[in-house]
Design a protein that fits this description.
This protein is mostly helical and 315 residues long. The protein is built from 11 helices and 4 strands, in the order αααβαβαααααβαβα.
């Protein structure tokens, strides 16, 4: 068996999928138990710990791709990943179980997701996301973090002594489950990305196409795995907050850091198609969230079909 052969790449993909599932199970279960132990809402844990953990592959791929290969890969991975998070991750999760939108997520976090998409498009419209743009994105990340921390502080101060006494204790196994789940998600996504990227590169596809499809979908797999498992376990707050938080971190943290390290070129094709698609998917899902504060199975089918159309148009 030769290294780099189609069989090896397919085995990498299969192994990556298996690790993603196992990691998602451990992460959601551990994070849910820890949320109860420290008195946090599931939505807050989802938009912070779980979202930041599932964003790790985007950060790794974008930084590595931008520094060693092409900034097209990093930008394509982020734009495509955010679209996949909305169309594919939320779509499939809603098909499994309708997703209720909490007031905390809708009022506190969704505005930052909208702002992140608008900032990326606005800052990149001149053809480059440079150092100053990266600093602006990181400043917005600091503002988001401050808002979340203030919210956590308020929720903690509202817990009475009696309620605190009834809360379960945090267990080492829950911390280990979260840590192990994160490692499995990152490793699984890495295997899947390596396998898919090699197959497409051998077939002669461009860097931006690989970034917008295989790398974007591959780096969204942790979100997909975590959100689908959360929906199956009836922890739908994790599904929503994971996607919203990931889309915020993808732009503000990942693009912000990459832009500080090296300028990111934005091609006319990206400004003409991918950026409008990102804004359309963001506006669409916010509209669905606002109407009835729920994403139904019908909405999930529309989102999934929309993502299918997006991928088809890439060809």
């Amino acid at each position: 068996m030769l290294l780099g052969s189609p069989l090896v790449e397919l085995l990498l993909i299969a192994g990556g999928v298996a690790l993603l599932y196992a990691g998602a199970e451990a992460l959601v279960a551990g994070a849910s138990d820890l949320a109860l132990a420290v008195g946090l809402k599931a939505s807050t844990v989802g938009v912070t710990v779980v979202a930041f953990a599932t964003t790790a592959p985007e950060l790794f791929v974008s930084l590595l791709g931008a520094v060693t290969v092409s900034t097209d890969i990093g930008l394509g991975a982020i734009v495509g990943s955010n679209i996949a998070n909305i169309g594919l991750v939320l779509g499939i999760s809603a098909l499994i179980r309708p997703l209720d939108i909490s007031d905390v997520v809708f009022r506190r976090d969704v505005p930052f997701m909208i702002a992140a998409a608008l900032l990326l498009v606005g800052l990149g419209w001149d053809g480059t996301v440079g150092l100053v743009d990266g600093v602006v994105l990181l400043a917005a990340l600091v503002a988001f973090t401050a808002v979340v921390l203030r919210s956590i502080q308020r929720s903690q101060s509202a817990i009475s002594d009696a309620e605190r006494d009834e809360m379960p204790e945090a267990k080492a196994r829950d911390v280990a489950a979260v840590g192990g789940g994160i490692v499995a998600l990152v490793l699984g996504s890495r295997w899947l990305i390596d396998g898919g990227e090699s197959l497409l590169s051998a077939a002669g596809f461009s860097d931006i196409f690989i970034g917008l499809t295989v790398l974007a979908l591959g780096t969204s797999l942790p979100e997909l795995a975590a959100s689908v498992v959360a929906a199956v376990r009836d922890e739908t707050e994790f599904s929503i907050s994971n996607v919203v938080g990931s889309n915020i971190y993808n732009v503000l943290a990942v693009i912000g850091i990459v832009a500080v390290v090296t300028p990111i070129g934005v091609s006319p094709a990206v400004r003409g198609f991918e950026f409008p698609a990102l804004l359309a998917f963001t506006a669409g899902v916010v509209g669905l969230m606002a109407y009835g504060r729920r994403i139904t199975r019908v909405d999930g089918a529309v989102l999934t079909a929309g993502y299918g159309v997006f991928v088809y148009l890439l060809f």
